[in-house]
Structure formats: structure tokens, C-alpha cells
Write a structure and sequence with these properties.
This protein is an all-alpha fold. It has 2 domains: about 90 residues, RNA polymerase sigma factor, region 2, helix turn helix motif (Rna Polymerase Sigma Factor, Chain: A), CATH 1.10.1740; about 80 residues, Winged helix-like DNA-binding domain superfamily/Winged helix DNA-binding domain (Arc Repressor Mutant, subunit A), CATH 1.10.10.10. It has 8 helices and no strands.
Amino acid sequence: MAATDEQLALNVQQGDKYAMQQLVLRHADRLTGYLYRMVHGDRALAEDLLQETFLRVLRGIEGYTYPRPFKPWLYAIATNAARAHFRRADTRRTASHESFELHPSQTANPEYQLERSQRARRVTQALASLPDHQREAIILFYYEELTIAEIAAVLAIPEGTVKSRLSIARRRLRSALELEESTHVTTG
């Protein structure tokens, strides 16, 4: 039976390098996707932040306490690494024109692929228009599939605040997408 993340984290605290490798293997892909969305499609920056996250995990593993769930602890570190990057850069992020990575079926027709790509671009742009705190909540909930309690732990806020941020963000996304769609229909 495979060890849980929490068991592996305890093993890392004891100096087990294999346990750290297992945590990296388990979480690198999803964490890269999370960071990729946080930095609006900058793949190289997402990969740099992934490395920074795992370095911080390794350096701060003594701060992890069992039986605290490992995944929210890890995502909190990744979120803080991304925030620190933007503070250091002292710049405000702008929307990327890249869409999410899509893997449409090879049998899909070109019109379907085009529509799907355009829809993903609109969602990406709408997501980028959200304030940071709302975008983080949306990404953690819908893309990373964290629970309300896990998001609260990652962002160090009450669960009610997470629910509020999600609700407001959903309304803003819906409005932005409806506005974009009406503009697209009238001008396209």
C-alpha cells in the first residue's frame, strides 16, 4: 500500500530523500498547472515557481505538523511563492493571450476545435480580470479541486470568506463572459 502524503512528509522530516522524490512526483504536474494559471500562462515562470515551492517545502518541512493535511500546506507554499514573485517584480500581472492547454480529440472537427479554443481564451481572459484573491479561490476550487476547508487553510482565511470570494468571483466571471459573448456576437 502506498504511503500517504502525510506519511511521506514525516519521512522527509527524518531525512528520507526518497520520500521527497515521491512527493515531488505526486504533486509536480498538478502544482505546475496551478502555478501556470496563477501566472497567466507563463510556462517558464510556473516551472521556476514549482522549483521554488519544493525548495521551500524541503527547507520548511519541520514546520509541517502531522496530522495536518499535506496538500493544503503544499498549495499554501506555492501560493506564497507566487505572491512573493509578484511582490519582488513589483508589477501588476496582465492577461495572457495564451489559452489553457487543450487536447481536443484528433477526430474533432476544426470548427469544434476553434470554438473550444476561443471559449478557453475567453475564460482565461475573464479569470485574469478577477482580483488576485478571487482568482486564487476559483483556481484552487475548480482547477485544483480543493475543498472549501482546504482553500481556507491554503489562504489562511475563514471558510465563510472562501465561500464569499467564490460567489463574488462566479458572478464577475459570468458577467465578464456574458459581456464578452454579447460583444463577440455583435461584432463577430
